[in-house]
C-alpha cells in the first residue's frame, strides 16, 4: 500500500498530495538552508520515486535554483511558505516537514552540515519553553 501525505502553504492557496514513502528526514544546517528558512536549519523529508500532485494553486508555486548547486527551494508566491521540490537528480521529492498537514511519519534521520550550524543554535535544550508568547494572556 502506498502512503498518501497532504500539505499546504500558510495562506491556503496551494495544496498538494504526495504518494510514496519518506526514506530520510534531514535537519540541514548549511548556510544556504539557514538563509532560505531564516532559521537554524531546514527540516526536509526525502521521498524517492514518489508522485507529487498539486491539488490547488500550482501556478502560485515558484522554484528558486541556487546557481551551480543541488540547492533548490519551492515556495508559494502569495505567502512565501516553503513547498515540495522535485529533485530529479536524486529521483526524489524534497518535502519541507512544516508544509505537511498530515502527520510526519518518521523521526529525523540526521543533522547534516552540522559544521555550519549557527552558533546560537547550540544547547537549545537549556532555553525555556512556553505554550504561548510569554506575557500574553489571550491566544
Automatic annotation (TrEMBL):
The keyword Lyase applies. The keyword DNA-binding does not apply. GO terms for molecular function: carbon-sulfur lyase activity; metal ion binding. Coiled coil: none annotated. Pfam families: GFA (PF04828). Transmembrane segments: none annotated. Residues 5-121 form the CENP-V/GFA domain. It comes from the Bacteria. Keywords: Lyase, Metal-binding, Zinc. Belongs to the Gfa family. This is Aldehyde-activating protein. The lineage of its organism: Bacteria, Pseudomonadati, Pseudomonadota, Gammaproteobacteria, Vibrionales.
Amino acid at each position: 500500500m502506498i502512503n498518501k501525505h497532504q500539505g499546504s502553504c500558510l495562506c491556503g492557496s496551494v495544496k498538494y498530495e504526495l504518494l510514496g514513502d519518506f526514506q530520510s528526514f534531514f535537519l540541514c544546517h548549511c548556510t544556504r538552508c539557514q538563509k532560505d528558512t531564516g532559521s537554524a536549519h531546514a527540516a526536509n523529508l526525502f521521498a524517492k520515486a514518489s508522485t507529487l500532485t498539486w491539488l490547488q494553486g500550482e501556478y502560485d508555486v515558484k522554484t528558486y535554483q541556487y546557481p551551480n548547486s543541488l540547492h533548490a527551494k519551492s515556495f508559494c508566491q502569495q505567502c512565501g511558505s516553503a513547498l515540495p521540490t522535485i529533485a530529479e537528480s536524486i529521483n526524489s521529492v524534497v518535502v519541507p516537514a512544516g508544509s505537511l498537514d498530515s502527520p510526519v511519519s518518521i523521526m529525523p534521520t540526521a543533522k547534516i552540515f552540522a559544521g555550519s550550524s549557527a552558533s546560537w543554535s547550540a544547547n537549545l535544550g537549556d532555553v525555556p519553553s512556553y505554550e504561548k508568547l510569554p506575557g500574553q494572556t489571550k491566544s
